[in-house]
Recover the amino acids of this structure.
């Protein structure tokens, strides 16, 4: 198959592109380079099955492919809050344009949605049936609501045009190729620890997250893409092991042998207090569950970031 991966040179997109090619597929990676970096796919640049097209998905795209994975959107609060209008446009107009392309070609299209559609949840773990607790006018809404609207569009295209859609709700993911200035908690803590700087925890550290290593997540996304036509999702993809942010900081200090100290800063507006996916659908429908534990995944991520900081 020839697969279009939007955001194809970003963190997740680059790992997806590499795995698709390893399975014998061709990849057309589309990216506007806002958070993507060609260094992420340096090993693929001479591969005959890999092609990069510089393009912003807020504008229509006319190409010939067999499937679409719509991964384009900044996923770090640092990046999406810097340009909130563009973030919303990327989610909404990007969805419109990729759905339009899929409709013209009559091909499957996968949407990379997010656990942020659940907002600051009032129940845990979060099942796909939970409609969420999102502040529509808060500083995170450009991302949260943009992804919610994208899901609406995907299911309306399904109902109105019988389009073959797939919607994955991705929980916190980490691994090699994260940007040094990514702004997400795992890379922030690792970079601070490697530099022996203070590790900054927002809030008291009791808030929880569930961290999924990138290769596990990629396996889940491809299982969903190649699942039977009637499987639409939304399906949660993430690690159901729940850890406190304070534990994550302490574990990273231990694994890096860092002299960093932990300091606490005020919790940002609308920051979720809990994140834990209910992955029973992923297990029963896709036969998928993550296999890499936090310590192993952190060691791999630390090695990658350390090599780029040196």
């Amino acid at each position: 198959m020839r697969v279009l991966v939007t955001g194809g040179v970003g963190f997740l997109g680059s790992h997806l592109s590499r795995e698709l090619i390893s399975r014998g597929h061709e990849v057309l990676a589309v990216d506007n380079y806002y958070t993507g970096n060609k260094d992420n796919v340096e090993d693929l640049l001479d591969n005959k099955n890999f092609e990069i097209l510089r393009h912003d998905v807020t504008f229509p795209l006319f190409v010939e492919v067999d499937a679409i994975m719509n991964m384009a959107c900044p996923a770090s609060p640092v990046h999406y809050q810097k340009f909130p209008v563009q973030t919303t446009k990327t989610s909404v107009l990007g969805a419109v344009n990729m759905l339009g392309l899929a409709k013209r070609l009559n091909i499957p299209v996968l949407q990379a949605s997010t656990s942020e559609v659940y907002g600051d949840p009032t129940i845990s773990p979060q099942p796909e049936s939970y409609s969420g607790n999102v502040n529509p006018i808060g500083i995170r809404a450009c991302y949260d609501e943009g992804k919610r609207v994208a899901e609406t569009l995907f299911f309306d295209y399904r109902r109105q045009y019988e389009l073959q859609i797939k919607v994955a709700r991705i929980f916190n993911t980490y691994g090699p190729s994260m940007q040094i200035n990514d702004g997400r908690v795992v890379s922030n803590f690792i970079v601070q620890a490697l530099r022996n700087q203070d590790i900054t925890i927002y809030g008291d550290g009791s808030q929880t997250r569930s961290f999924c290593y990138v290769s596990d997540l990629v396996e889940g996304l491809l299982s969903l893409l190649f699942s039977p036509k009637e499987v639409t999702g939304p399906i949660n993809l993430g690690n159901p092991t729940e850890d406190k942010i304070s534990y994550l900081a302490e574990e990273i200090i231990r694994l890096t042998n860092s002299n960093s100290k932990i300091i606490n800063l005020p919790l940002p507006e609308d920051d979720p207090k809990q994140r834990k996916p209910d992955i029973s659908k992923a297990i029963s429908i896709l036969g998928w569950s993550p296999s890499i534990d936090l310590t192993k995944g952190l060691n791999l991520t630390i090695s990658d970031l350390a090599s780029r900081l040196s």
The chain is about 40% helix and 15% strand.
